[in-house]
Amino acid sequence: MTSAAVGVDAIGLRHARFHSPARLRIACLVPSITETLFALGLGDRVVARTGFCIHPEPAVREVPKVGGTKDVNLARLLATEPTHVIVNIDENRKDAVDQIRRAVPNVIVTHPVRPEDNVALFALFGYVFSADAAAAALTRDFADALDTARAVGAQADREPVLYLIWKQPWMTVSRDTYVSAMLATVGWSTLPAQAERRYPELDADDAAWRDAARILLSSEPYPFAEDHVQALREAAPNAPPVALVDGEMTSWYGVRAIAGLRYLARLRQAEALTLSGF
Question: Are 153 and 265 found together in one domain?
Fold first, then answer.
């Protein structure tokens, strides 16, 4: 979030506090924020989600699906009669959001780009949905996790890593992404150092392959698994260490960022990355 002003979302729109909890009906089109709404005690107010909103289990199963993040079924969404719809600049299509805005009075836009932005995210939802105490509790837990991650990063040597999110073509993350900022808290600097796109494609001879001290394969959005780790090791026996990491822990913001920062701190402290822990 770019503003700490009370009730202001990522595009500068101010949202009023909703004073009728019994009438509150939230449609959330952002997986990590659906999880966060439940953590704020608002799960019974969530009336719609995407098929990618899979946490928290099993409670989220009771919430009707209205399509995916990129292909929302507008008719199905509006049938849930939401008072608020939560969207994200990276996750959702602008044309779909514009359509929703014409039918729903309150559309809240989010766009965390740094771990620290979660503080404003908690405050926004705490204010608008009258969940101030729960938001304050999440903020305290987040601050503790961030301090831990930063302490680990300060004690370790800065290490260049290649964080892969897709295969055929190989794709990574630029340094202006949330994922890269999360990794930076524990002293991992993503490659390439400069990129024209937020999610650049890599050629086989790209310098990032040679410059990386470690290659990290994310479990999402591409479902990298242990067999991919082994295949990459065999294809390039002289490559740096390759490991699989939990993509939800690095890319999901909101409440998941608390566990994510602690997860990264443990990985950075470990002598070798393993699959244990997820």
Answer: yes
Same domain, 125 and 157: no
- Supply φ then ψ for residue 174, to 5 degrees: -85, 170
The 3-state DSSP class for residue 149 equals helix
Q: Which residue has the tokens 């900022």?
A: 181
DSSP letters along 33-83, please?
A: HHHHHHHTT-GGGEEEB-TT---STTGGGGSPB-B-SSSB-HHHHHHT--S
**How far, in Å, CA of 157 to CA of 256, rounded?**
26
pLDDT tens column, 164-183: 999 999 999 999 999 999 99
Q: What is the pLDDT of residue 5?
A: 78
- Domain of residue 223, CATH code: 3.40.50.1980
Q: Under a CB-based contact definition with an 8 Å cutoff, are residues 122 and 138 in contact? A: yes
